[in-house]
């Protein structure tokens, strides 16, 4: 702990530029280059020094010697002795002096190399980090309301360019998210403005007429009540839409078949009152789904409510659930007016309504199917629609048993 504190204090005592990545890269480059050069020069010097130690400057010679033996007779023998070679001795002295000079020059060269490597390392680190500087500059110029700037780094497809491209992709996604948020606020404000205008107009008319009759007051009150109810529905749906804008909030396993069965039972009475036959087709096996059960319940309930409201008197509404490979699905089919193929995508957009005036009179917010798709996609699933004018509609909600499973083929 004390050593870490000393290191931190030492780092804080350094000037600002000494703590930069460029400075650290320069030092690392210089140390590595200096260390490599030291090893090479040291190896050469050690090899030369060893070769000098192994150099022989003397030679062995033989000479005939006359000596007297123990018996008194003269004898001739051979005597070996070493004689230094003056030329070899001179050569060795010259080599030793050259080795000393090499050592001196090597130390000086290593010192100059280290100083030079600092400059080269600083320059090279600057070149390498130049794209990072551009990324930093663009990031500083980006404001909270303007995400149109991009780095657009050019050059080879290396790690830094991939980083810049990733940053650009992130900015694009953020820009799209903020644009979507702005559109949502604009659309929500527009939807809330209409009932508020109705309420204000009716109140102004009633309050401006001190002789208004009870019937006029009652009629204005009913209009204001319907507008307030529509605003309440819209605000509730806006809260649900905002709440489910991310991944599912809960992570619990529940039986999709049981959930659909309970919903079908709850809508049986409203369907019967509307002159409809509500049929449920469910498997005997459990259909486990991991996620937010109340959210999934709301998504399925929205589909059944739409079918009960739009289906003509005397027709059928079929609610079914089953499995396909590793996927569980819920299907809601009706014999209602149907949806034109060109509107299959628009029907899931915020505040889209087929008949806007009728939808307002019924107090619909235009967020029901948007919330359905949002909830299903938050669980890693998908919504499929099969419909045409005059042939009813069939919505299918796919829920994965595992988020890693591939989606099944589109269509119903």
Q: What features would you describe in this structure?
A:
By secondary structure, the protein is of the alpha+beta class. It has a domain at 244-400: Heat Shock Protein 90, CATH 3.30.565. It is 57% helix and 16% strand. The protein has 10 helices and 9 strands. Helix 4 packs antiparallel against helix 5 (214-243). The longest helix is centred in the first third of the chain and has 56 residues, at 86-141. It is elongated. It starts with a helix and ends in a 12-residue tail after the last strand.
What labels would you give this structure?
10 helices; Heat Shock Protein 90; alpha+beta
Order of helices and strands: HHEEHHHEHHEEHEEHHEE
CATH superfamily label of the domain at 244-400: Histidine kinase-like ATPase, C-terminal domain
Mean pLDDT: 77
Task: Report the CATH C-level class of the domain at 244-400.
Answer: Alpha Beta
Helical segment count: 10
CATH architecture designation of the domain at 244-400: 2-Layer Sandwich
Class of secondary structure makeup: alpha+beta
What's the end-to-end separation, in Å? 65 Å
Q: Beta-strand percentage?
A: 15-25%
Using only C-alpha atoms, the radius of gyration works out to 45 Å
What's a quick, concise take on this entry?
This protein is α+β, with helices and mostly antiparallel strands and 412 residues long. 57% of the residues lie in helices and 16% in strands. A hairpin with a 5-residue loop joins strand 8 and strand 9.
